[in-house]
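= Paired protein data =
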Amino acid sequence: MGRPARQRLRLNRAALFGAALLGLVACTPAAPSRDAWPVFGSTAELQLPAGIDEARRIEALRALGTHWQQRERDWHAWEPSALTTFNDALAAQGEAVAPPALQGLITRSRPLVRRSAHAFDPGVGRLVAAWGFHTSTYPIRTPPPVDAVMVAWAARPDSLDDLRCDAQWRCTSTAPALRLDFNAMAEGLALEEGAAALRAIGVEHALMNLGGDVLALGDNHGKSWRVGLDDGEGGVLGGVALHDGEAFMSSGRYAKYRESPEGERWPHLLDTRTGRPAVGARLSAVLHPNPVVADAAATALMVAGANDFERTVRDMGLGCALLIDTDGRAWITAGLAQRFEWQRTVPEAGRIDLGEACDTR
């Protein structure tokens, strides 16, 4: 699937804490099993508590790997997939039937588009292609789109709102060139589905990682699963202990980008409202019990930037969210401030109190 707009970061780095990493815990359980494989244009990883039966471990890997490989074939935004077939049919015939593989993406995205004020919007596909971000090779050094393309987009942005589907999933679009791209939330849905696949075979304790986005199941022999947040510059900002069912998603500008003529880093994260790269933040992170919300929200915060941080966390119900602005200052909710363990001092620019719960809706 290759993650651009989100691929929102990808590798987004919620780097996993090792047993001794930064001394976050005085004592640790035996090291969990750890298996990794390529998928979604990045690396997937499954950690299981030490001592798990080998046959169960292989069964878990097979279940998870098979499901995620299928989702890559279903959801890839530019290589042949169920999504590109749907987009092509919509463009060529003016209508297309959304297959079951896409129906969940469409349904789950619609309320998030509204709640994010279109800072997250899967209608971004044509724009992502125009900027050259439908690729797995970074950084991008081809010329950016001409200004006229951006002016035309800003005057009439494509949006998921343009897609109309009936009860049989026959879909039409009021935007003739609409192309959907779900990279900004697909990993969240893949993690949610992965959790269901593991639980279906009796695996209740695991840590799943898709390109740095993580979802925790249960615990690690009574200890919380812990993950760290990479600052994108070779260091770790800190980390958090995850409760059962919690997801920790991040997005940033450091892995997938192109350079402006002046040498400025333009991230693959695009503001669907202006048609241009989102340059108002360095990094965002969201802790939430719903991985789809967390995934979309991490992108939305990067697009919103510091100026709209408070509005976005309130509108999206994000009790646990963090943004590092372009000056290196932290904007954080009170809920996440209680749980995030900083590993270095970062000046705080603003704190939003939505209570202690990470899901405020």
Summary: Confidence is low (pLDDT under 50) at residues 1-27. The domain at 1-361 is CATH 3.10.520.10 (T-fold). The chain has one domain: 1-361.
